[in-house]
Amino acid sequence: MLSDPLTGFGAEDRRHHISLLSLLGEKRDSVERVKTSVMAFSYSTNDHVLATAETREVYLKNRKPSLWQQLGKWRDKKHSYRRICIMLSALALALWLLPTQTLGTPNASTACNTLPDLMRSLVSNLGTVETAFIPTNSLNVSGTFNSIAFCRVNGSVPYPENNVVFFEVWLPETEVYTGRFLAVGNGGMAGRIDYVAMVENVNKGFATAGGDSGHRASENNDGDAYPGGVYLPYLHDRNQVLAWIRNSIALFTPPAKKITGAYYQDPPHHTYYKGCSTGGAQGFALAEFHPELFDGIAAGCPGNWYSHLALSFLWNQQVTLEGSAFLPQESLDSIRNAVLDKCDALDGVEDRVLENPLACEFDIESLACKYLAINTSACLTPEQLAAAKEIYHGPRHSVTNRSIYPGFDFGSESEWMFQEGRLSLSFSLPLLQNMVFDDLSYNGSTFDWAADVDSMDQKVGSLIDATSPNLTSFKTNGGKLLVTQGWADPFNAATWPINHLAEVSRVTGGERQDWLSLFMIPGGGHCGGATSYPQIPAKQNSLEALVDWVEKGHIPDDLLGTAPADASGRTRKICRWPQTAKYIEGNPDESHSYICEDTNH
């Protein structure tokens, strides 16, 4: 909520900066132009408001006189020249004491302000375009400030049945612009721009664009359908459903690139996409349905078989729902600890994480109550054992017995609590209630794991999934696809991208390809760190590796993992699958102490 048009950029600091610029020789009219173009913003995850021209006018009307104006009054009152000189000296000293916060060059501000008129002449179907010049360190997005000044552009693109995709483009100042365009994706049910991704990447010098996916979270229960039974308008609009995952990025990218080219008077030399979760699904949709748009795509924890991912949530809820089958957190932690005790050292170091869960041979029957004392968290009842095995195995078609979606892997057990309820209520039921059965009271208890799976495929999967293994067009166009997946992801089964990309490789010709790379993150969570592995680096240099791959032809053999939640400073080598990291010597908390080697799993 925008409570103060100067949030993140104090009024005193701004007034002093402007006055000091004047006293240091700037033309007065240039200073006034900078002052009237400066706008500051306040951000929250669920409520973002752009400061408008009206807000700016209110500020200009009510602001206190600048120091320049005060000096003018002093001159009129025949204050002594000596007093003014003393004041100027004090101000010069104060300049060194003020926080670093640049306004940006007048040329950049002017170019930003004139961009809407230019765009109307270049793009015929572009909706209203609004711009604002954002000074350095004046925009706070969930604790991250913009480290560089940029031109902020709001735009919209119409699509069938009077629908609109709203998007923004953030254009860094020319001095730090890399010449690259980056589109960022959405998360969950989307409906809003991912401003965290926007500020992170504009800070890297990318012209960064993001959209709301073609529908508004504010019109769809704020993008959260929990606990089910909620009417979601966008799920009843075929065009909005298609835009959600498959088309929205492709709708706003062409005009966003034109805006970028117009601002810098030169089109970007390379075009990239980065997204995770639903954004990862959008990345696969771009490679499948819009293969010509991007030079490189970074897709994290991809839910591109979204309809079946949602069914896996329902399956895992059902198998833990009855009687004593429920697995409390202490039991989940006990299972994970037993797994780590068995397999932690397989990579040559004991660090309480599995490098490759597929290499672990663990028998969960060893935790049965007949072997352990009853009523301890490590003792599993027959019902709990059966439930855990079903989560490991994953849902199956009740007639054909084919896998509907992969199960979860060893070492991920502490992250299963969401699988036992909330995910089904937040994602499975909304799709079933709004799109399959058209019944908001439907609770999933009577779901037929044959006929209803087929209905899900026809009514939902046909509109939102992006699972074709034939990505030949993207490959032929020179595209590069870099995929990351955490082994302890609490939402997406980790072996889904392994299985899917193996099929993609088979269809497109070649087991190890120069256009496709997968990185499996030991202890990694969903688009970041897993809460049960705070010692594991939560960030990877995936975008930097993708750029190097696209522009220099360097196929990434490994990524660098950094920034663990426990602030230990640990780094980790994340190998290109099917290779995994093996400890050789040195400090086990440093990435260079490992090598990548082939695995048979």
From TrEMBL:
Catalytic activity: feruloyl-polysaccharide + H2O = ferulate + polysaccharide
GO molecular function, one term: feruloyl esterase activity
Chain segments annotated as transmembrane: none
Sorted UniProt keywords: Calcium, Carbohydrate metabolism, Disulfide bond, Hydrolase, Metal-binding, Polysaccharide degradation, Serine esterase, Signal, Xylan degradation
EC number: 3.1.1.-
Enzyme class: hydrolase
A biological process term (GO) from this entry: xylan catabolic process
Family under the similarity heading: Belongs to the tannase family.
Name of the protein described by the UniProt record: Carboxylic ester hydrolase
Source species of the chain: Colletotrichum tofieldiae
